[in-house]
Fold each of these.
Amino acid sequence: MTKRVAVLASGRGSNFQAVVEAIAEGRIPATCVALITDNPNAFAIERAQRAGVPVTVVDYAAFPSREDYEHELLAAMEQQRADLFVLAGYMRILGPAIIRAFPEKILNIHPALLPGFTGLHAQRQAVAYGVKVAGCTVHFVDENLDCGPIILQKCVPVLRDDDEDSLAERILVEEHKCYPEAIRLFCENRLEIHGRTVRIR
Ligand code: GRF
C-alpha cells in the first residue's frame, strides 16, 4: 500500500528534492503529502511548489515560546495523517511530545558516520578530527540527538585537501541516494527494529 510521507525541512531542501524525485519516478511506493517548514524563507518551499507538494509553514519566529511552536507543529504533523515523517535538514530538535506522538515513524539523515560527530557542523568536525573516512547515516529518531537505531550508512573518503565544504559536497551526493533508499525500505515494510539494531527484511 502506498504510504503517506511528510517531509520537514528548514533550508535548501536538496534531500527533500531527492525524495520527491524518487517518489515521482516510482522508486518509493509513497505519496509526498506535505512539506512542513519552520522557515518561511526556506528554498525547500520553492521546490515543493514546483513539485506540487502542499506546503505548511509553522514559522518558529512567530511563536512566543518553543512550547507554543511545538504545539502548533504537532498539530500540523497530526493533520497530515502521515505514515512517515522525514527530517531533511530540519534544523531544530524535535521535543519529546512530538517524538512520542510518532514512535518509529520519524527518520533523520545526518552528514556523518554516527555515532561520531553528532550535532551541528558534522563535516567540519570530521575534517578537524582528521578522519580518513566520512559519510552519512539515516536513522530512526528517538529522544536523544542523532542517536536512534541506524538504517543505512554510506561512506566517502576524506581527501588530503578537503575542507568542510568539499567534504560536505561529497557526502551530499551519497545522502541523495541513501535517503530515498532508506525511505523505500520503510515504505515496503522491510525495516524491523530490535533494540538498537535495524534488520532489513
Ligand atoms: C544535509 O547535509 C543533511 O544531512 C543535514 O542537513 C543538510 C540539509 O541539506 N541534516 P538539504 O537542505 O537537504 O539540501
Amino acid sequence: MQTLIEALQRTADLVVNQFYEELARLPKSRRILEMLSEQELAHLKGRQVQNLLALAQPALNSQEHAAMAMRIGRIHAIVGLDKEELVRSRGILQELVYKQIGHRVSGQALSLYARRLTSDTAWQLKAYQAVEDSQQEVLQRITRIVWVAGSYTHFIDQVIGALSTHDELVACAIGRPDAAGIFHFEAGAGGSAQDGNVLLAALGGQGHDISVRADHPCGQGAVGRAWRSGKAERVVNYQTDPLVARWREMAEREGLRSAVALPLAAPGQPPIAVLMLYSAWPGGFVGPDQVAFVELLQTLLGCAVTRLQIQEGMHGAAVPVSVRQHRAALVRTGALEMHYQPLLNLATGRCGKVEALARLRDGERLLTPDEFLFSLASDDLLELFARGLDQALADRRQWLAAGHDLDISINLPPAALNDIRYFEATREALQTHACPSARLTLEVLETEAFSLIEGQRAILAKFRALGVLLAQDDLGSGHSGLARLRELPFDWIKIDREIAQLDGDTALDALRVVYQVTRLGHSLGKLVLAEGVDSADLLAALAILGVDGVQGYVIARPMPAAQLPGWIAGADVHDAHDASGAQAGESVLARLARFVVWEERVQLIAAAPGAARDLLKAAGFVALTPLAEALVGLGDMLPAGAARDELQSDLLRALLDGGRESDAWRAALDRLMRAIVATAQATLPPAPVPSHTH
Ligand code: C2E
Ligand code: CA
Ligand code: CA
C-alpha cells in the first residue's frame, strides 16, 4: 500500500486534472463545473486529490469510508450531478488512476484500491437515496401543514420548521414586501449560527435591502425577480452571479452559496410572499431532481396560499417581526376589547344573541382583526380566544344582571380543531362564569378543502358533548362547504356576505343561492343566518327567502359591551322588521325574492305528474281558479291587471311546455324582471332609513 500511496502522491494532481477535462465532456457534469468560480474549481480539485489519497490509506476502515463517501455523495446529489454520470465518471477516474500508476504498484494493492473506488461509488449512490428520502419526507410534512395551518404566521413558522430539517438546505426564509416594495423576512432558519433570528438579522441587516421593484437597484435579486415573474428564480452561485453582487459578502458569511426564490401564489394570482431556499454549495436547485422538488413544493404552497387568502383576505403587505411581537404582546396585556354585534332572529324579530368580535387597543387606535389576526402566531391565537371568551362571558353576566339575557357567539380559529387546549379553555370559561353551555355558540371557519381528519372530528365531538352550539362560519367562502354541511355537526350555518352580495344583474342569482342554501340547511336540520346584511331591502328579501337570522350593519355595527343594553332597549321600542306580505312600496329585491320562491313552487308543481298540472292546463293559464291562483299566482310581485295575468300565463306556459331551458321561458322571465323593476321604481317610497343603525 505504501508504494500505492507514494505513486498517488506523485500523480494525483495529474489524474485529477485529466479527470476534470474528461468530466467537461460529459454534458451534465459540464453544466455543474461551469457554475463554479475559478477558486471554487481549484478547491474542488484539491478535495478530489485528498479523497484519492484517503482511499489509499491502509488504516481506512469501512465505517470511516462510508461516512466520507456519503458526505461526498450528498454534495453530488445536492448539486444535481446526474446519477448515471456519477457512475460513468467513477469509471473514468478509475481508468485514469490505472493508466498513471497501474505499472508501478502490486496487483494486490491495485485491486484493493479498485474495490474501494467501487464501494465509494455505492456509498455515494446511497447518499443520493437519502437526499431523495428527505425530499419526500419534507413534501409530506408540508402537505399536512398546507391543510391545517390556521393563519399566515402559523403557516410560515411551520413551513420553515419543516424545511429546516431538510438535508439539502443550509437555510431558508420567508417574507413579504411592504408598501414601498422593500422586502422583509418574517421567518427563517439556518445560516451560520444555525439560529433563525441571527439569519433574519443578517438577511435584513444594514445595507442588504431587498426590493421587489424592477426600477430599484436592490430589485434584481432572486426575491425581486420571483416576486415580479411569479416563477422560481435562482442564484446559481452567489460568488459569480453579478445580479447578486451586493449580497455576496453577507451570503459568504452565512454560508449561503446558491439559492432559489419561490413566489408563493394561488394559481393565476400575484404572489403574496417569497420563500428563499439556500444551499451550502454552488449549483443547488438546478439539477433535474431539485427542479422537480422545487416545483412540487411551490405547487403545495400555492394551495396553502389559496386557503389563507380566502381565510384572511390577505393584502400582501409584510408585517415586520417587531410589529408582530408588539401585537402579540397587546393580546396578552389587557389591550383586548371585545365588541359585540347583535344577531337578529327573524322568527322572533328580536336580538337574543351577539357575536363577540376582537379589537385591540393600541394607544389611540382600536385595531380590527384584519389588522392583527394574521400577525398572531398559534399560541397568541389561543390566548386571544381564551381571553376573548372570558371577557364575553363576563360581559354576558353583566347584561344579565341588567335584565338582558343574551347568548354569545364567538369565533373559533381553525387551529382549534388541532389543539385540545381550546376545548379546555372553553370548558373552564363556561364553568367560571356559570354559563349554560347551550348559550354559547362557537363559529368555525370553513377553510379545509377536504373533510376533516380524524383528530379534528374528535375535537368537534368533544365540543358537541360539552353542549355548546356550533356554527359553520362564512359558508360559501371556502371550498367544499356542501360535503362538510352533511358531515359535520353544526347547528347554525352562517352564509358569507360575499354570497349575499348583490350587484345589479347577479341579484336574482344571489337570492336563488341564498334560498337554496337555506332550504338545504333546513332539510339537514340546521338554522341559517345571512351575514353582512347592510341594507333594509336585503333584509326584507332574506326574510321572504326564509332565512332564520341576519347579522349586519343594517341592524347594528359591532359595539362595546357597555353600549349594548342601551341599544337593545332602543331596538325593543321599534319593530325590528315586517316581512309579512308585500307592501305597496316593496323594493326590487323583495319582489325578486318573492319571485325566487314562486319559481321554486311552480317548478315543483310542474314536476308533479297529473293533478296539479292538469289543473293548471284546464285553467287555460289566463283566468286561474282560486286554488291555482294560490299555488302559482304572481300575487303581489306586480300590481293586479291584464298585464300581470298575461305575464303569468306566459311564464307558466313556457315552464310547463318548454321547461327552464326554453327560449320562451327566458323571454318571459326577462319581461317579468323588467316589470318588477319598473313597478318597484314607480311605487317605492324614499329609501327607508333603518331604525337601528348606530
Ligand atoms: P366574521 O366572523 O365573518 O365576522 C363578521 C365580520 O363582518 C366582522 O368584522 C363584522 O364587523 C363584519 N360585518 C358585520 N356586518 C357587516 C356588514 O353589514 N357589512 C360589512 N362589510 N361587514 C360587516 P370584524 O370584526 O372586522 O372581524 C373580521 C373577522 O375576523 C371575523 O369575520 C372573524 O373571522 C375574525 N375574528 C373576529 N374576532 C375574532 C376573534 O376573537 N378570534 C378569531 N379567531 N377571529 C376573530
Ligand atoms: Ca364569525
Ligand atoms: Ca362570518
